[in-house]
Amino acid sequence: MLQNIPTITKNLLIINLLAFLATLVIKGTFHLDLNDVLGLHFFLASDFHLYQLLTYMFMHAGWQHILFNMFSLWMFGCVVEKVWGPKRFLFYYIFCGVGAGLLQEIAQLGQFYWLATEQIPGFHISDLYTVAVNSNMLLNQWTTVGASGAIYAILLAFGMIFPEQRIFIFPIPFPIKGKWFVVLCAGIELFMAMGTSGNVAHMAHLGGMLFGYFLIRYWQKHPSMYYDGMAGGQHFFERMRKNWEQRRKGREEHPFTRHDTDYNGRKRQDSDYDFNARKRQEQDEIDRILDKIRKSGYDSLTKEEKQRLFDQRNK
Q: Which of 150, 179, 195, 287 is the most exposed place for a label (fewest CB within 10 A)?
């Protein structure tokens, strides 16, 4: 199973699981919680270190936390990495994870300012550092851990790459389009962030999606960069074009194989001539779409063309 998972997604899964197991072992053996060392602390707390903006996304609070994140990473990360390639995908993951941490820091600063204003008469923003020093023990407890910010950014990427692709998401009993799935996730996180959300860093989730959105929009305005980083330096769709041309050449030398039944087991009604004509028409349509991508970029495609290309890739 692991050999079918793209390189970066597989390594991220392994690193996160090893880090979580190491946290359990070290805490049980040496009574040292790695989440306190590598988790992201509030930047005005004494336990804060700059490296925590990177390390916090490999720490997790419990089994439920890590299993949900790793399942989401496996489910959507495999698809996104195959589209972008390992280098682009890794950069996106780290960039959005750090961005999620930064937005969480800003949210905590706002929370701290609000608490100080409520509890300290005559409090002014210039008193912020002094109050932080006096509240150091409390602020050191504000620790953020988990890959959720980067994971939510991957969910966003999937929805923006395949907006019309229908997916089943538990517990929704019907398929939902990728774009509406992203809107639903963002809406839930925004609603939860506005209320009392316990220990869940909803602003980090939104931060990952926000940084991911702006990065993808930047890449989309620079098509030569959007699908960069593929193995051998090949543009993703250029590789797809070459694969498609090889398949077409093979089919010209060897006629299409026509089955007597379709995928539903029903007997085919079309003749051999109609079958071959339809297959060649499908080939010509894919060729036209790939030509359009090469000349004008992926974003020049219509929704129908993107869906047709996605369906063809899955055949």
A: 195
Cα-only R_g, the chain: 24
Count of Cβ atoms closer than 10 Å to residue 282 Cβ: 13
Helix/strand/coil for 73: helix
The encoded tokens of residue 196 equal: 């009392």
Q: Tell me the pTM.
A: 0.73
CA angle (59 as vertex; 38, 49 as ends), nearest 5: 20
Residues 6 or more apart whose CB falls under 8 angstroms from that of 39 comprise 52, 55, 56, 59, 143, 144, 145
Half-sphere exposure of 16 (CA within 13 A, CB side): 30
Burial of 115 (0-12, 13-18, 19+ CB in 10 A): middle
Secondary structure of residue 33 in the 3-state scheme: coil
State the alpha helices, DSSP H only, in the chain.
7-30, 34-38, 52-55, 63-84, 86-119, 128-134, 136-139, 148-161, 178-194, 202-220, 223-226, 236-253, 272-296, 303-313
Closest of 63, 78, 81 to residue 20, by C-alpha: 63
Six token digits for residue 258 = 């026509």
1: helix, strand or coil: coil
Contact 227, 88 (CB under 8 A): yes
Q: Are 189 and 107 in contact (CB under 8 A)?
A: no
The burial class, CB within 10 Å (0-12 / 13-18 / 19+), for 101 is: buried
What's the Cα-to-Cα distance from 123 to each of 114, 117, 120, 130, rounded to whole Å?
Answer: 10, 6, 6, 11
Structure tokens at 273: 């001539």
- Cα angle 135, 141, 144 (rounded to 5 degrees) comes to 130
Compute the distance between CA of residue 273 and CA of residue 256 in angstroms, rounded to an integer: 11
